[in-house]
Amino acid sequence: MNTNQNSSADAPKKKNKIFPIVLTALVLVGGTFGITKYVHALHHEETDDAQIDADINPVIPRISGFVTDIRVKDNQAVKKGDTLVILDNRNELIQLQTAEAALAAAQSNLTVSEASTSASKATVASYQANVPTIEAQIESAKVTLRRATEDYDRYANLIKNHTVTQQQFEQAQAAKETAEKQLAALSDQKNAATRQTAAAQSQSNAVGQQINVAKASIQQRTADVENAKLNLSYTVITAPEDGHVSKVNVQIGQLIQAGQSIFTVVSDEAPWVVANFKETQLTRMHVGQKVFVEVDAYPGRQFEAKVTSLSPATGARFSLLPPDNASGNFVKVVQRLPVKIEFVNPEDKMLKELRPGMNVDVDVNLD
Fold first, then answer.
1. Class of domain 59-84+238-264 (CATH, top level)
2. Direct distance between the N- and C-terminal alpha carbons of the chain, in angstroms, rounded to an integer
3. Which of 79, 140, 213, 363 to pair with 269, CA 20 to 30 A apart?
4. Quick one: pLDDT at residue 16?
5. How far apart are CA 188 and CA 198, in angstroms?
């Protein structure tokens, strides 16, 4: 009996010796943890309000049309320029053929106008060549008229004295009249040649204007052909970047409108992080500071990054309905500012596994 009583009395004493040791250990561990966190907080800013982001390119048709073929499936990897969707191109082919026919007609009109211009220039040159010839003939006729006039005057004086015969006088008079008529005829020919030259020149100018009009028409028709070719190329919708296709929200036979987003391509380029820090955390934060990023999807894996830019306004200002503090009762709420963080090693293959929208924890070293 005494032995059992002694054992029962010793047991509490052993427990009392262990308790202070455990308590001391807990205090030391807790204190060490608290001090470590405090010291860490002096040199770091953390937030879990952060997500992975990347370029998300919408696939938007530039023309309206009916879908005839879909070359991709949901979540499929694509390269830049790969064919995604094909539209019915019959209407665009007809427009191209019409534009090419109009261009051929305009080129034919230009050829005809140039031929007319050549003929008009030849006519103008011919008329212009006649004018100097007629002027030379007029000068010769003036000389002949002057001589005939002198002979007539001399015979007119001599006939009074009966020095010459009446026949000789009449011959001188006839020669004078003939010379006068010839000079008048040549003058009329010169005037006619001048008028013909002016008319031909005017016609040539008109034909030249027709050539300018024909050339302008060719330029317009050429532009129509290029526009038709461009629209025809738009019937094949290609990938804007290397990446992965999202859910394909389109079916064969569906009519899609120009400017309608049918699905998206998430770029394969290195993603980045957008962290929303409280405004009170930004006091010592600046571009270039070192950052450690932990992704919820890959616990234990830490990525090295750096701060590259701070948003010019808080996230609330970019919302659809930004708050108006001037209306109603005011309650002060700490605002958050988006901070862009880029990974230091974009060649890290692990980054390819990150998807936009994934949650991450961000730790910014303020030193």
1. mainly beta
2. 71
3. 363
4. 61
5. 15
